[in-house]
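Example 496, ligand uridine-5'-diphosphate.
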Amino acid sequence: MALTEDKQVIHHVLLVAFAAQGHINPLLRLGKRLVSKGLHVTLACTGNIQERLLKQVATTNTEDESNNSSNNSKSHSISGIQLLFFSDGFDLDYDRKADLDHYFNTLEKVGPVNLSNMIIEHYYNNHKKLSCIVINPFVPWAADVAVQHRVPCALLWIQPCSIFAIYYRFFNKLNSFPTSENPDLSVELPGLPVLSTEDLPSFVLPSNPFNSLLKMISGLYQNMKKHKWVLANSFLELEKDVIHSMSELCPIRPVGPLVPTSLLCEDEESDVGVELWKPEDACSEWLNKQSASSVIYVSFGSITVLSAKQMEAIATALKNSNHPFLWVAKQPEVPTSDGAGQLPNGFIEETKDQGFIASWCPQTKVLAHPAIVCFITHCGWNSLSETIAAGVPVITFPQWSDQPTNAKLVTDVFKIGLKLRRNSEGIVSTEEVETCIEEIINGPKSEEYKKNVMELKAAATKAVASGGSSDMNIQWLVDEISNGNSCESEGFHFSK
Ligand code: UDP
């Protein structure tokens, strides 16, 4: 077992991430905080994004080191966190989104074997003490690998604690949820506003078409006892009621928001994160030329593709608003034949003096820019955490997964914005977008939204600062790990 000079055990933590930017970055940011508290941290994810990640490491992290390990292959690290890769069982050029069921089923079979071999090679063959494995929700099988190696496992939940609580109650059948027979049932849960069908996570609805994702989340909850600790990318002051409502069922400890440190008034140098798409830095220069609190920022994240009709309605509303706008119109990864995800013909030319269209932008820098007045967002939890940390009010346009509930939190719990309503065709009309833009910028509640989001920004900053609620939860985890809490033979229990 590895010892430091003063004969203390070196504790190693392995973070296991699903290979997506919104999954890797919160884990890296947690990892960075664990490193700052003296632990040795490695991030493992599937090799399909190895090339893209290592380019980032080389270009954005000048302090990173590359050295030769015992098997003569190069090892890479980012901000003091070593990076390792294992195979997901597919060739590098395989289209992983083409058949999600097949992809997740295969990953569930080959992932545990390959991860386990990686642990043996990297830790046991080098006599390193692996004291904790932290996983995120899309690799639930990694908890079985932790049990197999008798290493305590933590889950980092990367959506709000509210979503964790809803799924917990749904999968454990603690409350009634909509069914095919009763599809419009409203749900009342402790610590949350009453949730109608349109506010619930889409995976719990009878209409959910994504069976592999539902199966994976269900598997995670069935395996919950294998996680010794449940952490979340949130902060106590943001979701106090729902966090308390879980304390007797399955305690969840928020350690966030795990957003770039520069948003939380901390040293920019201490940030860590990767970008899987190259941001257009020119938008920062464009923003510098705009007046304070004037620009509408529009982005629907990395996955959402809006129909041509929806794109047109938003485009017309932005043009009519007479406000400058910055719109991230990310092109669909698989080209569409029906115009989905495309801007209307002539729109870029017509609005060239009013707007900036980007295919990907440095979102957190954009949100922190004084020119931004509001954010039209799909309500991905990373985007919402970032807008809260930046103090920017939002107009919500949720699509699927946790986003409908996140939008409800925005309007009814955080009170930092309003929601775009769909018409009977399922489209948000031009008039609706125009009304919401006017409301958020000049409406009777606009000052209140701004005040509330600024208060949450201050609370987030306090939570991650030394002695704050999230910092104390991280310190508690470090103490648990360092005190050598090992797993129990029948699986793990939750410490209160
Ligand atoms: N993002 C970015 N540039 C963009 C759009 C998004 O860097 O132009 C980042 C954003 O800051 C966030 C992530 O991509 O961290 C999106 O994650 P989120 O959970 O909001 O949505 P998802 O992409 O998972 O739907």
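Summary: The chain has two domains: 4-260+463-482, 276-461.
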